[in-house]
Amino acid sequence: MPGQHGTSLKDYTEALTTQLRLRDVPGRAIGQIVAEVESHVRETGEDPVEAFGQPGSYSAQFAGRRRPVGRGGWLSLDDVTFTMFMVGALVLLNGVLNLGEIVNVTANVVSWVAPIVIYALVVGRIDIAVADRETRTITAARRTQGTRAASWLRFLAAFATFALGMAISSRLPHEPVLVSLPGWSLVLVGLAVTAVSVWVYQRWSDRIVDPRPWHLKGRPKWR
Question: pTM above the 0.70 mark?
Answer without folding.
Answer: no
